[in-house]
Design goal:
Helix content: 25-40%
Number of strands: 9
Largest sheet: 6 strands, mixed
Order of helices and strands: HEHHHEHEEEEEEEHHH
Number of domains: 2
CATH class of the largest domain: Mainly Beta
Structural class: alpha+beta
Strand content: 15-25%
Distance between the termini: 10 Å
CATH architecture of the largest domain: Distorted Sandwich
Shape: globular
């Protein structure tokens, strides 16, 4: 093989490897969580993934391991594009229909809840990657039953808060105000954050309780910055490849596919076997197989 052809092969391998990384399930986007009122996943992370205190967080770890907690800022759907009710079935709202976070959907009354009252409320969202978009918070209806899975029809149609989010955050938080209606007992606040520079969206559930003496499971805490720093090395998530993160990286997976097809065209022009040009549409397993076939051809 000529030096030029070797260079083309290495370029194709690099592009294929980058594309493989970008579609591997473990490489997901992570961008934040509600800290006031603290979301379920953030509250369990604050208890300590290795040393949970509440029974529900102990059960979550027993069922799903500690990784969902170390990945506290990742409950997302990469291609939501506003189709939240189409993509998330009833009973799966808190997990965004993701198996990894299925425990967040448990209909239990021992999730620790933030005590609230009717009127103005200051929301606080810890952001690890800021994106322009819209954050909307809904509350459950008076008929909500915390012993049953959350359904879309359980949410009031009018949100309690809506805010536009900026592409940057100098404090590490989005802070905005809303108005809580007059309710009693346990309720859920459901947050939807839809980016406007990408189809990606993020979701979370925060347990709240109205009225004195109604709190039975204990008050949740949000993670400290020290806890976030300590657990960061155990996170499996990445901010790369979800559109709008960095100038020139609007869609790295697509860009890699375009570059790879350009390599194919150049190789084909010179009479070489080309990498199949449909890599961008393959699953991770399919891409691995394609790379195997490609390099086997190169060796023959």
């Amino acid at each position: 093989m000529s030096a030029r052809h070797k260079a083309a092969s290495l370029g194709a391998l690099g592009a294929a490897s980058a594309l493989l990384v970008s579609i591997t399930p473990g490489q997901a986007g992570a961008h934040g969580a509600v800290f006031n009122p603290v979301s379920r996943v953030a509250a369990c992370y604050a208890e300590g993934p290795e040393t949970p205190k509440s029974q529900v967080c102990k059960d979550l770890i027993a069922a799903s391991g500690t990784q969902p907690l170390y990945d506290w800022n990742e409950v997302n759907i990469a291609n939501a594009n506003g189709r939240h009710q189409q993509l998330i079935p009833d009973g799966k709202l808190c997990s965004a229909n993701r198996e990894k976070y299925k425990a967040l959907d448990w209909p239990r009354t021992d999730w620790r809840a933030t005590q609230v009252s009717a009127g103005a409320f200051d929301f606080k969202f810890r952001v690890t990657a800021a994106h322009p978009g819209t954050m909307t918070v809904y509350i459950t209806k008076d008929s909500y039953d915390p012993t049953k899975p959350l359904k879309w029809s359980d949410l009031e149609s009018t949100p309690v808060a809506t805010t536009a989010t900026a592409k940057t955050s100098t404090t590490g938080y989005y802070e905005f105000s809303g108005t809580l209606p007059n309710k009693s007992g346990r309720h859920l606040l459901y947050k939807v954050w839809q980016r406007n520079d990408s189809p990606e969206a993020f979701y979370s559930c925060s347990d709240v309780v109205f009225g004195q003496g109604a709190q039975t499971a204990g008050t949740p805490k949000s993670p400290t910055e020290k806890q976030l720093d300590t657990g960061a090395s155990k996170s499996t998530v990445s901010h790369h490849g979800h559109g709008g993160d960095t100038a020139g990286e609007q869609n790295p997976a697509k860009d890699d596919a375009v570059a790879l097809n350009a390599e194919n065209t150049a190789a084909a022009t010179e009479g070489e076997s080309a990498v199949p040009p449909t890599l961008a549409g393959l699953t991770a397993a399919g891409l691995t197989a394609a790379c195997f076939v490609f390099f086997r051809r190169r060796r023959t």
